[in-house]
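Q: Okay, next protein. This is Bifunctional NAD(P)H-hydrate repair enzyme from Streptomyces maoxianensis. I've checked the sequence twice, so it should be correct. Can you predict the 3D structure?
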Amino acid sequence: MRTAYSVQTVRAAETELMARLPQGALMQRAAAGLAAACADLLGRVYGARVVLLVGSGDNGGDALYAGARLARRGAGVWAVPLGARIHEGGLAALLGAGGQVADDPFEVLAGAELVLDGITGIGGHGGLRPDAVPVARAARGSNAVVVAVDLPSGVEADSGEVRGEALRADATVTFGTYKQGLLIDPAKEYAGTVRLVGIGLEAHLPSVPDIEALQHADVAQLLPMPTGESDKYRRGVVGVVAGSARYPGAAVLAVAGALRGGAGAVRYVGHAAEAVIARFPEALVHGGPPSKAGRVQAWVVGPGLGEDLDVVQDVLDSDVPVLVDADGLRPLDPSALRDRAAPTLLTPHAGEAAALLGMPREEVESARLASVRELAARYGATVLLKGSTTLVAAPDEGRSPVRVNPMGTPWLATAGSGDVLSGLAGSLLAAGLEARDAGSVAAYLHGLAARHALTDGAPITAYEVAGALRSAWRDVRESG
Ligand SMILES: NC(=O)C1=CN([C@@H]2O[C@H](COP(=O)(O)OP(=O)(O)OC[C@H]3O[C@@H](n4cnc5c(N)ncnc54)[C@H](OP(=O)(O)O)[C@@H]3O)[C@@H](O)[C@H]2O)[C@@H](O)CC1
Ligand SMILES: Nc1ncnc2c1ncn2[C@@H]1O[C@H](COP(=O)(O)OP(=O)(O)O)[C@@H](O)[C@H]1O
Ligand SMILES: [K+]
């Protein structure tokens, strides 16, 4: 599991730790780890040309002290001050070690092998300021390897937003813990390869992180596996209520996902039975209401239903876990959902989430983490918010971390891929996973399947993603 903490939590832990250490010790630990990582990247420090982009805060201080360490080992190091202030101790250390302040930032950047981006870290907001923009562009346009100190400058540490321009790094050296933005797009994409340097903060962080991301081994542990005692009912039956005369494809795609989620059987209920059976003879189909379709261990309701929404209530009246997606999200009543005894999993995209929260879509897009938490609290349901970084939150007032999906790919932004995801997650629910696990494992496998389907670099269809779920499953099992 990869875990991350909010800036507020990091600062609280830092305060606790600093109270026990001599002044400046923490920054020295950070700088030592940073300099070691830079030395690894450079291969040869002696004679290397290093440029430090230095903002007004401690992030700049880290860069200056790391630069001093590299200068002592024989690198040529130039600082480019970019703030109204500069970390005085760090600057003195750099100058004392033989480093210099650059006369012309663009000239030193043109010859640099390594650029340390210390403009802003967890104290930065609102993208790079105008005077830093041309310098950051010159750094990116040079042949140098760009290493971000703690975080790429210009990104929001907590939300992962990039509100203006940010400096794209080849690698990021982060201190003490991952920051939330390092796991959430678009900031995540700016970070390059992330290296975590221990500075003793770990012991002062709460045991439950603010957010976490599954990795292969975690997913492998959660996958439902049949045993000698299994039969198709014990493996779980998932009911899929999806599709309509107008949108039969949604039913086919949701069933395709459900068949690859590990449940023992898929029961389809709705008006697209012919289309479903034509593709999947193994599906059980039923034309009446869901409540009369026979026993299931979990329901999926919503994809492609169009206006035929009475079935949503029928399914919610059941006493089994229910996943609600797409059209099914329209008639939801928060208080009725909160009263359900069995778990409910909602899987909106940003537009649907905005409608559920009664706010503009842009507000959800710009505060995805806050939005998914708010939705889970308001509806008393686990919520999987789809999009560039899929997030899954449980309705437990922050007792469990929000799961961030590390496996997405923008190629998934193709019609019908959400239907595959809902079938898949519903199948995992029927197989007995908790709602937060079912949602996050489904998002992981879905993203991984898309990557597998993408082998030749050409666009993929939702149906192909469903087809690649088997190889995603295998990939996770083999390395888990
Ligand atoms: N916490 C820890 O455990 C440890 C923390 N450590 C390090 O400290 C870093 C945090 O340092 P920090 O608090 O001084 O904040 P930091 O990110 O340097 O920003 C400072 C100032 O920048 C400015 N500014 C704001 N936005 C801006 C923008 N868009 N573009 C340009 N400037 C902008 C704004 O000042 P202003 O100019 O508005 O007066 C703001 O106050 C952390 O990331 C890590 O590297 C390690 O040393 C050890 C362990
Ligand atoms: N930019 C993106 N990057 C990664 N994944 C994305 C992006 N945009 C959409 N997705 C994923 O694609 C799927 C689209 O689902 P959805 O919006 O329900 O579409 P549909 O209704 O056509 O099936 C979701 O799994 C979502 O997380
Ligand atoms: K930085």
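A: Here is a summary of the prediction. The chain has two domains: 2-213, 216-479. Residues 330 and 391 are 20 Å apart (CA to CA).
Q: Noted. On to the next one.
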